[in-house]
Amino acid sequence: MPRPIARVLTLLELLQSGGIRTVTELADRLDVDERTVRRYAGHLVDLDVPVESVRGRYGGYRLAPGYRMPPLMLSDDEALAVLLGLVAGRRTGLTTATGTAGETAAAKIRRVLPERLSLRLDAVLGSLAFTAPPGETVAPDSGVLLPIADAVNHHRPISIAHTAADGRRSERTLHPYGVVAHSGRWYVTAADLTTGEDRTFRLDRITGVRTLPGSFEPPAGLDPAERVLTGLATAPYRHEVTLRVQGTAEQIHTRLPAGVAIVEELPSPSSADPETERWSRVELRVDRLDWLPAVLASLDRPFVIERPDELRGLVEALAERLTHSARRSPPDA
Question: How big is the CA angle at 221 (ends 218 and 227), to the nearest 5 degrees?
Fold first, then answer.
């Protein structure tokens, strides 16, 4: 590629990164004089690229906002980052569009790559393996996600059309606090003005969003992710489990994540040995108890079951099976 053309494209890439670039800065980056920078900017204007000249002490050049730009120029590292991001997004549920948008986006990028780079990226993607299987993911509709995110950003109330897990449909007015992606699903945490409660809604169960006039002030110190995790951990289930475990919240959450269990570290008695590890209160709501004994055993920490009594029997049964297995002799060859 002739050097002047390469430098014009480099100028476009610099301007695409955003903000105002001074003529002096651009001249240094392109290794040309300031007069040449102005000529290169004129070439971009001739190509219908919306380059604006900004006057003043801190003036220079920038791209006009709101215009559709020509295809992005990506370096080798940038192309790899984008494609790996699309692959990871599909596996973790962070893709925000339904259908095949992720696949078509990746195909468009790969279609314009030089053969040399395309072969290298194929080698990376072909040799890539994941340690965990892809989970169940539910991508939100962009027509739902985008207006909700905008309302969160500008503190605007919204009206949503919602379908509950049992199929009941309702119209609700919300003050949305934040959007959270968790375990392959997307949630909005909000004040539900219809019921007067703070609620969490799955975005895939919202079929329509309408921004309402006015604004609201979110609570101070709000943590949307913590609210979603707490809401999931306290959702109504068949069994309510309460335990006391000797250990910190961080240690317990390694086996019982925040979206499953609420952990409260308890104060140490005044007479307690300062070297003795503190206990924590753990609360869970689950549909089944059969998986809990193995998880409690994997914690490898003393624990006390407060409720339900049914869990005690399951723990004892697991202990008996483990004891029986430990005492068995290997079969003869």
Answer: 80
